[in-house]
Amino acid sequence: MATATRIDDLSISAKPKKRSTGIVGLNLLLEGGYPDGSIVMMYGTALSGVDIAAKQFWKVEGEEGTYLMNDGEIEVGMADVTELHPEMYLPQMAGGRIVVDSLSMVVLKYGIDGALKFLHLAREEVRKRGANLVFIVYTGIHTPVEMTRLMRAADIVMELRTETSQNEIQRFLAVQKIKDAAAPARMLPFIITDKGIEASTTSRVV
């Protein structure tokens, strides 16, 4: 007796929708961008370009977004959440492109458990709406345990790294984690220009 199933009705080529990162080379590395509904952690030093990468994601034309600033200069269009408890960030989060700059400040003010509680609540919201949340973490101010817990809470973890060789500064972007997928095996060289981050697209991404 034949067993009927619905497997043949499913498209094996179906892929999750993705949202542009705002950086062409990074889009290629991620095969289109960030999967809708994912939470992205960007970490590096204050000079690594993490804030520039976050702004490029926020400013991609054609889609509404929210930039929640709690420890820096408030630019046009950003929401000043300096005095707000992180749970009050949620009503401020409009559109599909949401940035928290920075989660480091949340950890310093409310502790790692307060930051993780916010991420838990934010995850439910962005998944429900198919949005993306990018949060910035600055290195050198958190314990290894705190960094580990933040990385585990994110769907995608990216490091922006600066290396100095003799009289030359080299910058690299490394995707360290992608939930339910293999992380790219190579680092992406990039430069910082007056227009933002420009990542190398010379290497073919398979």
In a nutshell, what does this entry contain?
The chain has 206 residues and is an alpha/beta fold.
Describe this structure in words.
The chain is α/β, with parallel strands linked by helices and 206 residues long. It has one domain (18-199): Rossmann fold (3-Layer(aba) Sandwich). It has four helices and eleven strands. The protein is globular and about 45 Å long. Mean pLDDT is 91; it is low at 1-13.
Uncertain runs: 1-13
* Mean of residue pLDDT values: 91
Structural class: alpha/beta
CATH topology: Rossmann fold
Strand order of the largest sheet: 5-4-6-7-3-8-9-10-11
What is the first-to-last residue Cα distance? 43 Å
CATH class annotation: Alpha Beta
Strand residues, percent: 25-35%
Number of domains: 1
* Total count of helical runs of at least 4 residues: 4
Can you say what the CATH homologous superfamily is? P-loop containing nucleotide triphosphate hydrolases
Query: How would a textbook summarize the main sheet?
Result: 9 strands, mixed
What general form does the structure show?
Answer: globular
State the order of secondary-structure elements, H for helix, E for strand: EHEEHEEEHEHEEEE
Measured as a percent range, the helix fraction is 25-40%
Number of strands: 11
**Second CATH tier, the architecture:** 3-Layer(aba) Sandwich
**Radius of gyration, whole Å:** 18 Å
